Amino acid sequence: MKSLTSIETEIDIEFDSFHEAETILRSIKPEIKTAPSERSRLKAYIINNRILRLEIYSEDSASFRASMNSYLRWIILSYEVLKLK
């Protein structure tokens, strides 16, 4: 059985406004800059004024899954805090 050598993906998350997308992006930026793993990288930016795009590059499926879980949890938490405001 052949295993994957790397994984690259783009995930788009659409928000109701540019303000929401920008706030979420700003809230996860520190996590992106201080990512503990060298096996996975992430780029995050806004497209079309309301879509937060995540580009994830991972060396293997375990690091991909860990990155996905972490970033999605941070995004969900940030969104829930934003909605409390």
Write up this protein.
This protein has a single domain, classed as Alpha-D-phosphohexomutase, C-terminal domain (TATA-Binding Protein, 2-Layer Sandwich). The chain contains two helices and three strands. The protein has helices at residues 18-33, 61-84; strands spanning 7-14, 40-47, 51-58. It has a three-stranded antiparallel beta sheet with strand order 1-3-2. Helix 1 crosses helix 2 (61-84). The N and C termini lie far apart (50 Å). The model has no long low-confidence stretch (mean pLDDT 90).
Query: Globular, elongated, flat, extended or rod-shaped: what is the shape?
Result: elongated
The residue fraction in helices comes out at: 40-55%
Radius of gyration, rounded?
Answer: 14 Å
The tally of beta strands, per DSSP, is 3
Most strands sheet: 3 strands, antiparallel
- Indicate the multimeric state: single chain
- Supply the CATH superfamily name: Alpha-D-phosphohexomutase, C-terminal domain
Write the H/E string, N to C: EHEEH
Number of helices: 2
Percent of sequence in beta strands: 25-35%
Task: Please state the structural category.
Answer: alpha+beta
Which fold does the CATH topology refer to?
TATA-Binding Protein
In CATH's first tier, which class applies? Alpha Beta
